[in-house]
Amino acid sequence: MSEIRSICCLGAGYVGGPTCCIMAQQCPDIRVTVVDKSVERIAAWNSPNLPIYEPGLMEVVEKCRGKNLHFSTDIELAIKEADLVFICVNTPTKTFGLGKGKAADLKYVELAARMIADTVEEGQGRKIVVEKSTVPVKAAESISNILRHNIKPGVTFQVLSNPEFLAEGTAIADLLKPDRVLIGGEETEEGREAISALAAVYRNWVPQERIITMNTWSSELSKLAANAFLAQRISSINSMSAVCEATGADVSEVAEAIGRDSRIGPKFLQASVGFGGSCFQKDILNLVYISECLNLPEVAEYWSQVVSFNNFQRFRFSQRIVECLFNTITDKKICLLGFAFKKNTGRVAKGDTRESAAIYIAKHLLDEGARLDIYDPKVTQQQILMELSQPNISPENPDRIHELVTCHSDPYSAAIGAHAVVLCTEWDEFVTLDYTRIYANMTKPAFLFDGRKILDHENLIKIGFHVETIGKRLHRKNIERSWN
How far apart are CA 422 and CA 334, in angstroms? Predict the structure, then answer.
């Protein structure tokens, strides 16, 4: 099969944008065009203010944009000119109908497949279509069926699975030095040729031994399994944090001890207020739904517990705040530092808040009658108020948010008069804040709750704070233990 000379990417979001930027940088002889229906998003990609924030991304875009990297709303032209088309569209969890709350909504994937089938002209030869969005097992088969039943004379399609394994905040590093690249396709001569063609693109910068080929279904399931296993580790260490707080053990010491075991390893063993982001919960719930559909209720229940414990960890942290503040926070001012689900993420001028633990902690505190003053270096006031006004967060009275929530442009003003400071996101700047200044302007006794375990707790105690953190008891309590 002839080599790939032109690539089109349908979707200019978190996956398609960075992936194709690196592909263009590493493959200067390949024309890469990223297309999207959103005029605003494409305009942002063509401006100095990119629609997403990733360290190192701007430098790559500036180097390649206008040369072999292009951003356009002319979707049909890009598809016609491409040898290979990536499908990088959104696959949200269904909010209604069969599989509501668990199954992936594949309407955008289907629309993309139909657009490809309608756009490719007679006699254009072979087109490789690559699903890169996170999809349930056998989604590629659905794409193939749509393309096959709408095929034109002189056109053939090969559908591949090439899942992404990017972590927000480190996407560029993940793309430049991936642990592995998975390519799944049909176990036919044509399928193997298509796999080989895509592998040749990656070999421009990825060592051959890190490019793994397999059948389509294995590739699709591997993506869901990877995110499920990572989330499972977070919930596992968070479960240990609860035991540590009750016994006087230190979860960081426990994590180091088990992480030294080469069979376990140290990654994803940082206890916290829980995982967030667009992938982990969505993909686990998708895996739960698939298991239920396959009549595997025990498998479904096993993975659903990972999400259940994550919710419990958020609630447990929130309850601890209430208990420490003398079991009532009604009309008390509480300062939240951080609203993004983790540091170094986000779109233009706003961090990524999808499924952020801060949203649910804020909900619990608001339900208890607290007044929240929030600061995040990337998340805008509009985004914060929008998240907290969602029906699942404020189902009865969304208007309360404008009365009880105040957003600040600096952390010091947010903490003035606060009964407690709650650290929800591990932004680097929070480590170097002047906590003596913060303490001086707070209501006493002043409480600080470190939900990310990044601060110098001993120094904070010396300043005067009552400090609480995850998985460690800093203030000993006289409790009777029952070992029965």
Answer: 7
What are the structure tokens assigned to 361, written together?
């902690």
Q: What is the DSSP letter of 184?
A: E
Distance CA 26, CA 29 (A): 9
HSE value, Cβ hemisphere, 13 Å, CA-based, for 340: 21
Cβ proximity of 89 and 76 under 8 Å: no
Q: What values do phi and psi take at 69, rounded to 5?
A: -120, 125
Residues with active-site annotation: 279
Per-run averaged pLDDT (10 residues), the chain, 484 residues: 88 94 97 97 95 92 97 97 95 84 86 94 92 78 89 93 89 96 94 96 97 93 94 97 96 97 96 91 92 96 97 97 97 97 66 89 96 94 93 84 95 98 96 98 98 96 97 64 45
Q: Using CA atoms, how far apart are residues 317 and 182, in angstroms rounded to an integer?
A: 38
Spatial distance between the Cα atoms of 59 and 351, rounded to a whole number of angstroms: 19
Q: What is the pLDDT of residue 347?
A: 52
Separation of alpha carbons 419 and 372, rounded Å? 11
pLDDT of residue 237: 98
Residue pair 133/86 in contact (Cβ under 8 Å)? The answer is no
pLDDT at 100: 86
The confidence score (pLDDT) of residue 351 equals 66
CB atoms within 10 A of CB 11: 25
Q: CB–CB of 45/61 below 8 Å?
A: yes
**C-alpha span between 204 and 217 (Å, rounded):** 26
Give the model's pLDDT for residue 35.
97
Cα–Cα dist 295/483, whole Å: 39
Q: Measured between alpha carbons, how far apart are the two ends of the chain, in Å?
A: 69
Residues 6 or more apart from 325 whose CB is under 8 A from it? 332, 419, 420, 447
pLDDT in the model for residue 232: 97
Q: For residues 403 and 31, give the distance between their C-alpha atoms in angstroms, rounded to a whole number.
A: 52
The reported pLDDT for the residue numbered 175 is 97
Nearest alpha carbon to residue 151 among 130, 132, 127: 127
Query: Whole-model pTM?
Result: 0.88
What are the beta bridge partners of residue 333?
371
Specify the 3-state DSSP secondary structure of 408. coil
Helix (H, G, I), strand (E, B) or coil at 335: strand
Residue 407 tokens read as: 């957003």
- 157: nearest Cα among 168, 141, 169, 170: 141
Phi and psi dihedrals of 372, rounded to 5?
Answer: -110, 130
Name the nearest CA neighbour of 183 among 140, 148, 120, 231: 140
Cα–Cα dist 130/421, whole Å: 47
